[in-house]
Amino acid sequence: MNVRSRFLTPVVVGAAFAAGVWAGTARPELGAATAALTPVFTPYSDVVGGKWMKVAPGVSIAGISHTASVDFGVIQISSVGKHTHHNSTEYAYVVSGTGTGTLGGKSVAVKPGDLVVIPPNVEHSFAASGAPFRFVMTVVPPIAAGDMHMMK
Q1: Could you tell me the pTM of the whole model?
Q2: Which of 38, 67, 100, 127 could form a Cys-Cys staple with 79, CB 3.0–4.6 A?
Q3: In the CATH hierarchy, which fold is given to the domain comprising 3-30+38-143?
Q4: Are strands 59-66 and 53-56 parallel, antiparallel or unpaired?
Q5: Buried b (16+ CB within 10 A) or exposed e, 92-131
Q6: Contact by Cβ (8 Å): 67, 24
Q7: pLDDT tens-digit profile of 2-60?
Q8: What is the DSSP string of 48-79?
Q9: Where are the domains of the chain?
């Protein structure tokens, strides 16, 4: 990793995380959105050093922020099979690890600094090849219960 990347990655991650926390209230588990907003800056190292919640096989989240219009947090993937979301767009900025992402049938190597945009109804999957494989993830609107459709 060059000097520019070592400097920019924490700045981008910190700014993105602060924006997500500003957009919603940090919560320890997925649940209903709250009306109160609490501005806060949280270092990335504190987020990934905190509590991880398993949300699906091979997928965990930390530092989740939630409102009625957006979810934001850090996601760690070992492997998640091909699936779609009918109503949500996912924006994933890779912050650590490496892996393979498959979008709409096309597989690519994914590494820190890559931005992955996943529109609704696009089949996608990820598999880690270097751990920990982590993304700063923004989901608009939040993925509703039952809107993760696994493919065979």
Answers
A1: 0.72
A2: 127
A3: Jelly Rolls (2.60.120)
A4: antiparallel
A5: bbbbbbebebbbeeeeeebebeeebebeeeeebbbbbeee
A6: yes
A7: 554 554 455 444 444 444 443 443 434 444 444 555 677 778 888 888 889 998 889 99
A8: HTS--EEEETTEEEEEEEE-SS-EEEEEEESE
A9: 3-30+38-143
